[in-house]
Automatic annotation (TrEMBL), chain A:
This is U3 small nucleolar RNA-associated protein 15 homolog. Pfam families: UTP15_C, WD40. Part of the small subunit (SSU) processome, composed of more than 70 proteins and the RNA chaperone small nucleolar RNA (snoRNA) U3. May be a component of the proposed t-UTP subcomplex of the ribosomal small subunit (SSU) processome. WD repeats lie at residues 118-159, 244-285. Residues 345-490 form the U3 small nucleolar RNA-associated protein 15 C-terminal domain. One of its GO terms (biological process) is positive regulation of transcription by RNA polymerase I. Ribosome biogenesis factor. Involved in nucleolar processing of pre-18S ribosomal RNA. Required for optimal pre-ribosomal RNA transcription by RNA polymerase I. Part of the small subunit (SSU) processome, first precursor of the small eukaryotic ribosomal subunit. During the assembly of the SSU processome in the nucleolus, many ribosome biogenesis factors, an RNA chaperone and ribosomal proteins associate with the nascent pre-rRNA and work in concert to generate RNA folding, modifications, rearrangements and cleavage as well as targeted degradation of pre-ribosomal RNA by the RNA exosome. It comes from Nothobranchius furzeri.
Automatic annotation (TrEMBL), chain B:
InterPro entries: Beta-prop_WDR75_2nd, WD40/YVTN_repeat-like_dom_sf, WD40_repeat_CS, WD40_repeat_dom_sf, WD40_rpt, WDR75. One of its GO terms (cellular component) is small-subunit processome. It comes from Nothobranchius furzeri (Turquoise killifish). Keywords: Nucleus, Repeat, Ribosome biogenesis, rRNA processing, Transcription, WD repeat. WD repeats lie at residues 53-95, 246-287. This is WD repeat domain 75.
Length: 527, 777
């Protein structure tokens, strides 16, 4: 006696993007908090010390936000013109910012007025940063120069005039207090050593450079400009390592995650892309509402802060993993005693052992199918959670009923509520290509059975009209697709003209004449 | 008929065992069933075939225990004889020549030495008229007896053996035919007949299908076409008979049987459910569901402990008291159509073909035993007539036996064709095939051919499937996904879709090294490069669709052979891309032996089939035989031999490395065997029976061992000749036990014969002989 073979639920390939560890990690953020700023948000910088406040430079102000507050903790407003590049010092005490009016201002995070003003640049200063030595400031300006300043005396120490266009980005080395790198609109990246007069290394990016990033090890440098993100090996004398072209507009901002395993790039095309730094493949993608100008990642990736041209600051906080667990109590399981009952019994020597056949566990619908209760099997397969969470199970049961030749019996004799539930399921999953053949036969049988009662129930009629409209839409859509396919085929055929003989092209052009199948539109209109 | 003398066609196993009701011996140890031209004796415990009772020259149509001696069995056959066998030893005791083809046989305890047989009314007219005849079996000691003492009992009976039954220890005999039931009482010598209308009010068909009589009570159970069972009582009067109806089966009841005490009634039908009805409490019934295939016969052992059911898939199931299936005896399943053809599993060297619905069967040719069924469809089989089911239509093995590809399809009347391509990988741990990939709807139309790349050493395996939708697709195993632990096994995916002028590909074939793929598109043969999927060349031939394609092997690998439906065989040379030779031959099957250069072609002519074995490079065939068998040969396969034969004769050399098996239209599995091979077989069987002077009994085993030791100790001791030359002993040992006179009578004669010598050794021998005699008696 063979055991009952349960219904085969096909292991269908998942549609859409694949779920990887990265998608799980980067999707684990709450809905973004959006804050309206006064103008385009040009820079975001996180304080290196706890509680990791971040400075947001927007228009003529710099706001400092706490990690969870939605109101600024502190505001610096004493700018004559647009402020740029508000950055913290490594101890989180001081903040430096450039300005459109060419003056660089230094603030105490606790105070209000500027502690020092550094005057010397002749045009807007877009880059300002502290060196690792903590007592010097690097600035770079639209007057093609970059300068080093002494903090206490407000004296210019050195000026480098090597760039031939606006200097819009720069980073200081965290390991060496004399080293810094600037990128300019003249397409070059230059590495400077404050102990020498000239730049020590020059690299050509090929596009106006918008952003620079040094790896924690400082062996690799990432530059963004135009649509490209390029990685340079500094230890090999500035050899280009990779060139990434994943955005379709200018890349404006770069960031590394806390582990250094993932690189993030933000662009004017409203996307933030996450790359794996071992193979430089895009592993995740964030979409935003407007062109992105600035991007910041909190330590431990606790939050992602993005500033956009429409002066919106979007803050995404990481979900806390412990929260959902506390809400749902674990179901109480049968006690240990129940499981162990009779398990540790040792048979005596003369005992006759009666073997008990292992009981086959069957799903609810399989139990009904085993008893040939076809209507009940369909009912159990159409249970709410099953048809929503696992439509493939419901479809498999319908298919099984069809195979047994009893689908008509199972579908017949249903009242309004059951029928509308069935139609809802059919409509909801009709255009899933994996289910279409099965659901098409189901819809045909339903129409055959219930055509005499059409018009008696408003609910059913509404569903049927909905289905008809959907079908018409789908048919037009398919027609369009076929046309496009035909066009593509012609193009391919002509591009292969030289390689292949003429008759094969004749064959390919034959393939263009597709005719979309229309089995049911006819039926629906007759009804 | 051209005879090559030493090569002949041999019938190789796989005959039906479900043709007639099996018989269970009184001690429930053996089960006997008619199988082709012999009766097979199976052990009901180990499922092994213990004896095969050979002797009939026609199909055996019935097996029956002799009522007066439960160790003997009657068998009847269409060759017009009834034979009596001793089934424990497998000896033919007597042959009764009746002279008419016998279709079934019955006997009862009441009628000593009389058997009832069903024969055609008139042998000369080929009409469907049969009669039940009583045959008086003459009691003579001869081996061959003419039994011409026939007397007709009932005329107009059915040839189906389940339509006649003896009731209540042989007091009466009941027979059903179409809509009429006839009950014949032997004492009164009178028969009553009852008839039913053809259709009931509800539209069910009333035709009788089978009958069973209660062993203790005057009650007859009949089965009907509409699934009803009627219990007839009080049928001793013509008018006042009554019947009650039991209805559970939804289609015709094919077999009915009462248990020996009459407490239960067993019934079976298409549903493949054994139903056990309590006698007199018919609303209580037990079921044994899902027995695998439609039940054709139900039998009960004389002690009522074992039931056995025969099934339409050539299977006999032995059931212990309606609870547990204890043994399954499975023959070679032969459905209506072997669509997959014959294949050979490269690993187990088993023959693979369609088995029961939705399965592939692996059949061991050496042991003539079914090894196992591989469930391809993996769906519950619904036993209902007229329901379209998934069928396995194509299967292919790769060269190493690591991969198996199967195609299953289900054709509905109105809806589209449902196709599934499944790829199975061999699992070393479980030693069976495990499903790897399922491709639903791999093609838009039926798949016409499928083959694996034959190269055994290549890294990637390629499968090519050709379909009626005008495309052929190449499938390749993907690389293992190493990124995550979620998917361990690589799966198959489509690598290339090829087409040629919208023509329909009918056959495809890989060359032996896997470097070329030939696809036959109707009249054109295209040759492709499987690595770059480039069309290398096209070979055209005189009009006619290409039916078979195969590449030459080994030294003939430069040749490509094809046959078409316009009676032509062509051979192309692939080096020059030109036709090497062609000949006019209506080849229905063309196949290549993978172990040698030989090719075999089966030609169909005037209802019989000719075979030609040839090398593509040589003009003369190596071997040819006209009229290999009657009817068309549908499928054939070369199976590699495990031990190579050392035959020097030119005509039989082609059988040295492999054997050729073929399946005819009538589903007979045949093969060729050489003289040398048969002699070897004969020699081995002789060896087994050589020391037959003493029967193999437990007593002998004990004593024999003792004797051997004894001989070992005293090798120098002179051995006197065994007294086997003595006439008395010879007579004693060679006559069957049941015709011997009483032991007391024999004793003095026997003792006298032992007086020849008085040495110790001969005494021991005589003791052992005595033991043999004692056991025999």
């Amino acid at each position: 006696m063979a055991s009952f073979k349960p219904t085969q639920i096909p292991d269908l390939p998942k549609l859409g993007e694949k779920i990887t560890e990265d998608t799980l990690y980067w999707k684990n953020y709450k809905a973004p908090v959006q804050i309206k700023e006064f103008g385009a948000v040009s820079n975001i910088d996180f304080s290196p010390v706890s509680p990791h406040n971040f400075a947001v430079t927007a228009f003529t102000r710099i706001h400092i936000y706490g990690p969870f507050s939605q109101e600024p903790v502190k505001t610096f407003t004493r700018f004559k013109d647009t402020a740029y590049c508000g950055r913290f010092r490594s101890d989180g005490q001081l903040l430096v910012a450039g300005c459109e009016d060419s003056v660089v201002r230094l603030y105490d995070v606790g105070g209000k007025a500027a502690l020092r003003m550094y005057k010397g640049h002749t045009k807007a200063v877009h880059v300002a940063d502290f060196t690792t030595g903590r007592y010097q400031i690097l600035t770079a300006s639209d007057d093609y120069t970059c300068r080093l300043w002494d903090i206490p005396n407000a004296v210019e120490l050195t000026a480098y005039q090597e760039h031939t266009d606006y200097v819009r980005c720069g980073v200081t080395s965290k390991l060496n207090r004399d080293l810094f790198i600037t990128g300019s609109y003249d397409h070059t990246l230059r590495v400077f050593d404050s102990r020498t007069e000239k730049s020590v290394m020059t690299m050509d990016h090929g596009q106006p450079v918008e952003s620079l990033l040094l790896y924690p090890s400082e062996g690799l440098l990432v530059s963004a400009g135009g649509r490209y993100v390029k990685v340079w090996d500094l230890l090999k004398g500035g050899q280009p390592l990779v060139s990434l072209k994943n955005h379709h507009k200018t890349v404006t901002c770069l960031a590394l995650n806390s582990s250094g395993q993932r690189l993030l790039s933000a662009s004017l095309d409203r996307h933030v892309k996450v790359y794996n730094t071992t193979n430089y493949k895009v592993v995740h993608n964030f979409d935003y509402a407007a062109a992105i100008l600035s991007l910041g990642l909190a330590p431990d990736d606790e939050s992602i802060v993005v500033g956009m041209t429409n002066s919106i600051l979007s803050i995404k906080h990481r979900k806390n993993l412990e929260e959902p667990k506390e809400t749902s109590k674990p179901r109480r399981r049968p006690s240990y005693r129940v499981f162990m009952k009779g398990k540790n019994f040792v048979p005596k020597q003369d005992d006759y052992f009666v073997s008990k056949p292992a009981r086959q566990h069957l799903a609810k619908y399989d139990k009904q199918l085993k008893r040939f209760n076809v209507s009940k099997a369909l009912d159990t397969a159409l249970e709410a959670w099953l048809r929503r969470k696992k439509p493939e199970v419901t479809v498999a049961v319908i298919k099984e009923l069809d195979r047994r030749g009893t689908l008509k019996n199972a579908l017949a004799g249903r009242d309004e509520e059951q029928l509308s539930r069935l139609l809802c399921f059919v409509i909801g999953n009709f255009f899933d290509t994996r289910f279409t053949p099965v659901l098409a036969t189901t819809a045909e049988i339903v129409l055959d059975i219930y055509q005499c009662v059409i018009g008696q129930s408003a609910v059913i009629d509404r569903h049927l009209i909905h289905l008809q409209k959907l079908l018409e839409k789908e048919i037009y859509y398919q027609k369009d697709l076929m046309e496009i396919l035909g066009m593509l085929d012609t193009m391919f055929a002509f591009s292969l003209l030289r390689k292949e003989s003429v008759d094969q092209i004749m064959f390919k052009s034959k393939m263009i004449k597709y005719e979309p199948k229309q089995p049911f539109i006819v039926k629906l209109t007759t009804n | 008929m051209v005879e090559y003398g030493d090569i002949r066609v041999v019938y190789r196993g796989g005959s039906k065992i479900n043709f007639r009701k099996p018989v269970i011996s009184n001690d429930s140890r053996f089960l006997l069933c008619a199988s082709g031209e012999s009766v097979k004796v199976f052990s009901s415990v180990t499922e092994e075939c213990v004896h095969e009772l050979r002797g009939h020259t026609g199909q055996v149509t019935g097996v029956l225990l002799r009522p007066s001696n439960h160790l003997q069995v009657y068998s009847c056959s269409t060759d017009g004889t009834v034979r009596l066998w001793d089934f424990t030893d497998g000896i033919l005791v007597r042959t009764y020549v009746v002279g008419y083809p016998v279709y079934s046989i019955y006997a009862s305890l009441n009628h000593k030495e009389v058997v009832f047989i069903v024969t055609p009314v008139c042998v000369f007219v080929f009409a469907e008229l049969f009669q039940l005849v009583a045959v008086n079996l003459p009691q003579t000691p001869d081996q061959l007896v003419e039994a011409r003492d026939l007397s007709a009992v009932l005329s107009d009976v059915s040839s189906n053996p389940s339509t006649i039954a003896f009731g209540r220890g042989g007091e009466y005999l009941a027979s059903v035919n179409n809509l009429k039931m006839e009950i014949y009482f032997f004492k009164k010598n009178k028969s009553y007949s009852f008839s039913l209308r053809e259709y009931t009010k509800n539209g069910g068909k009333n035709t009788f299908t089978c009958i069973a009589c209660h062993p203790k009570d005057d009650c007859v159970a009949t089965g009907h076409d509409d699934g009803k069972i009627r219990l007839w009582r009080n049928f001793k009067q013509k008018k006042e008979y009554t019947y009650s109806t039991l209805h559970w089966h939804h289609s015709a009841v094919s077999s009915l049987c009462f248990t020996p005490e009459g407490t239960n009634l067993l019934s079976g039908g298409v549903e493949s459910v054994l139903v056990q009805w309590r006698y007199n409490q018919e609303n209580q019934k037990d079921f044994l569901p899902r027995l695998g295939a439609a039940i054709t016969h139900v039998t009960v052992s004389p002690d009522g402990a074992l039931f056995s059911t025969s099934h339409s898939d050539n299977k006999i199931t032995i059931i212990q008291s309606c609870v547990k299936v204890s043994a399954v005896i499975q023959g070679l399943v032969k459905g209506e159509n072997v669509t997959t053809g014959l294949l050979v599993d490269p690993r187990s060297k088993a023959l693979v073909l369609n088995g029961r619905p939705g399965h592939l069967q692996f059949y061991s040719l050496q042991r003539d035993k079914l090894l196992f069924h591989l469930d391809i469809v993996q769906q519950e089989y619904i036993h209902e007539a007229g329901l379209e089911q998934f069928e396995v239509v194509r299967a292919a093995f790769d060269a190493s036996g690591l991969w198996l590809a199967t195609v299953e399809e289900r054709k509905q009347k109105s809806a589209e064709l449902e196709l599934n391509l499944k790829l199975w990988s061999f699992d070393e741990q479980t030693q069976s095939f495990v499903l790897n990939t399922t491709v639903s709807a791999p093609h838009e139309a039926r798949i016409t051919a499928m083959c694996f790349s034959q190269a055994a050493d290549s890294q990637t395996t390629t499968l090519v499937s050709a379909s009626r939708d005008g495309h052929f697709k190449a499938w390749q195993l993907g690389l293992p996904a190493h990124t995550d632990g979620t998917q361990e096994w690589p799966s198959w995916s489509c690598d290339f879709v090829g087409a040629y002028h919208g023509l329909v590909p009918r056959c495809c074939c890989f060359s032996a090294d896997g470097s070329l793929l030939a696809v036959g598109f109707q009249e054109v043969v295209t040759v492709w490069n499987p690595t770059s999927w480039e069309l290398l060349t096209t070979l055209s031939q005189p009009p006619g669709d290409v039916r078979n394609l195969c590449f030459g092997q080994l030294s003939c690998s430069k040749y490509l052979l094809g046959s078409n439906n316009k009676k032509m065989v062509c051979c192309w040379n692939l080096l020059t891309c030109s036709l090497e030779w062609s000949t006019s031959m209506d080849v229905s099957l063309l196949l290549v032996d993978s172990r040698s250069e030989n090719m075999a072609a089966f030609c169909c002519q005037d209802g019989s089939t000719d075979l030609f074995v040839f090398k593509p490079s040589e003009p003369r065939p190596l071997f040819s035989q006209k009229a290999v068998c009657s009817g068309r040969v549908i499928h054939a396969v070369f199976t590699p031999r495990e031990v190579m034969l050392e035959s020097s004769e030119e005509s039989s050399q082609w059988l040295n490395r492999s054997q050729l098996y073929f399946l005819t239209e009538f589903m007979d599995l045949l093969t060729f065997s050489t003289k040398a091979e048969e002699e070897k077989l004969m020699a081995s069987s002789k060896q087994l029976v050589i020391d037959d002077t003493v029967a193999m009994t437990p007593f002998y085993l004990l004593l024999g061992k003792h004797r051997h030791e004894h001989l070992g100790n005293e090798e120098s001791a002179e051995r006197t000749p065994l007294p086997q030359s003595s006439v008395a002993i010879k007579e004693l040992l060679q006559t069957p036990a049941h015709v011997l006179p009483a032991t007391s009578f024999l004793c003095s004669m026997f003792a006298k014969s032992l007086l020849i010598s008085v040495t110790e050794t001969s005494f021991m021998n005589s003791l052992s002989v005595l033991s043999a005699v004692a056991v025999k008696l």
